[in-house]
Amino acid sequence: MLTCNHPVPPDRYNDRVEEHLRVTGFYHASQIGVVQNQKALVNALIERWHPDTHTFHLPIGECAVSLEDVALILGLPTDGLTITGMTMSSFSALEAECLHQFGVAPRKSECRGCCIKLTWLQDLKENIQLTDEISIQSIGQYSWGSACLAHLYRALCRASRYNCKEMDGPITLLLGWAWIRLPYLSPLPREPHSFPLANR
C-alpha cells in the first residue's frame, strides 16, 4: 500500500525530541501527514519513466525530480556529506553490518534476500534510543535530500521493469512533485502556503 506513516502530532513532542529533530534536519519531514494511496498516478508516472535518462517522458517533454524539489517538498537538507556505504550482497554481510551498527542482527526469516523487512526495523526503532549527543550532531552533517532523491530514482528504475509488481521508496516525494508540476491532478490544498510543500 502506497502510504506513509502518520507523524507524531507536534504538540506531543517533548522539547528534547523537537530539538534533536531540528539539529538533524528532520523536523520539517516529521511534520508531513498521511499521503493517501494514489496507485493510478504512480503507475502512470512509472510507465513514463525512462531508466536510461532518469526522466519522465511526457507529451510536453522530458522532466525529472530535482534536488531543489526534494528540499521544497520534504524539507530535507540537501547540502553536507554524501551518504555512502557498501551494498550488501549476502545475508552474512548484512548480519555483520547490523551487529556492528545496532548490536543485534535480523534472522533469515526477517529478511528477503539481502534486504531487511521494514517490520524488523520498526521493531528495532521502538527498542533503541539515540542518546549519544555526538551521534545526534553527526546525523545533521549529511545530505539526506540527496539520498532520498537517489532512492527515488533507483525505485523508479526498478519499478519500470516489465516483471516488477511493487514499488518502494519515497512515494510522498513522487506524489508531491507530480501534484506541483501537474496541478490539474492534485487534490485541493488544505494549507496553500505551508512548508514543506508535502503538507499541502
TrEMBL record:
It holds the Pfam family PMD. PANTHER family: PROTEIN MAIN-LIKE 2, PROTEIN MAINTENANCE OF MERISTEMS-LIKE. Residues 25-125, 134-187 form the Aminotransferase-like plant mobile domain. This is Serine/threonine-protein phosphatase 7 long form homolog. It comes from the Eukaryota. One of its GO terms (biological process) is meristem maintenance. The lineage of its organism: Eukaryota, Viridiplantae, Streptophyta, Embryophyta, Tracheophyta.
